[in-house]
Amino acid sequence: MKGVDLLDQMVGYYQIHHRSTKWWRRLFFYFLSVAGYNAFVAARSVGGPEWKYRRTGYKDWLEDLSQELIVPVTAISAPCVLPTTPTVASADHDLAQIFTKRKTAGSHSGTSVRPGSTLMGCKQCNVPLHRECFMHHVVRESSSTSGLSPSLHTPPPTSPTLPTPPS
């Protein structure tokens, strides 16, 4: 009876306090406490006389175990915003309903000029646009492509230029 009494004593001292109206949650946390103590007993029997927690006890082992089990949570970043400039330098832009779900559109969305989202967009660029913003989009694209990222907005070379060996 020594083992059972010691188990109940340790689980009672270092119980995981989780208030709940659902009976199975209380039972789950009780079994979690029992499993933690059983793991401590198993580690103590395997660890030998020079085991780190032989003198400090169950509480310190449980705290270190909980710190090891907690992994750093990486925040989920916001989804990337669709580019407001066309990705292809071309004058062939068509406004059509290309989205099935409403998308936040362009630079004027959420402002007093044109708030909200739209199903419409440029077929060529796959960019959500309001009808009122479409001409601004085409004019901006056709006026200049300077300052845009060359990897996205310059067409790939048609034929690779090979260096000529010196002769």
TrEMBL record:
The keyword Transmembrane applies. The chain crosses the membrane at residues 27-46. Keywords: Membrane, Transmembrane, Transmembrane helix. Residues 153-167 have a biased composition (Pro residues). Residues 144-167 are annotated as: Disordered. Pfam families: DDE_Tnp_1_7. InterPro entries: PGBD. It comes from the Eukaryota. The keyword Aminoacyl-tRNA synthetase does not apply. Residues 1-40 form the PiggyBac transposable element-derived protein domain. PANTHER family: PIGGYBAC TRANSPOSABLE ELEMENT-DERIVED PROTEIN 4. This is PiggyBac transposable element-derived protein domain-containing protein. It comes from Merluccius polli (Benguela hake).
